[in-house]
Amino acid sequence: MGSSPHRFFCLLVLNDLRVEQHPDKTFIGRIAHGFDFLGYHLTPTNIAPARQTLQNFVQRIARLYEQGADAVRIGQYVRNWWRWLRSSLNVVFEARLREKIGDLEHLRVPISLTRLLGRI
Question: Which of 3, 49, 67, 70 could form a disulfide bond with 53, CB atoms 3.0-4.6 angstroms apart?
Fold first, then answer.
């Protein structure tokens, strides 16, 4: 590991939290390159589903089909997956809106932001 002050700071935080860096699975690098965390790929300007998350989604649908699941069951899985995906993306979108236009409560919008974002 290099001698960057940022890397040193990361190691201090990990040490304080009593978290160890796994030698095979963890890489400390530039955030600008992005990283996968809890099924999402995060960069300084974007959040999207991770490549492995999308592959798992498609594989799960294929497995359900192979096991004889009907269209209703597969549809339930797809809807639940989309709900999970949108839940975090809505949080990020709302944060970006707050950053751009300030506190949304002052807008006195009659429809909740969550319901509005659910339509997008």
Answer: 49
Residue 36, beta-bridge partner list: 41
Are the beta carbons of 61 and 74 closer than 8 angstroms? Answer: yes
Beta strand residue intervals within the chain, DSSP E: 35-37, 40-42, 47-49
Distance CA(117)–CA(19), nearest Å, equals 36
Domain ranges of the chain: 1-33, 40-119
Average pLDDT, the chain: 75
Q: What share of the chain is helix, strand, coil (3-state, %, to 5)?
A: 60, 10, 30
Q: Do 41 and 48 contact (CB within 8 A), yes or no?
A: yes
Band of residue 93 on the pLDDT scale cut at 50, 70, 90: low
Percent over 90 (pLDDT), the chain: 23
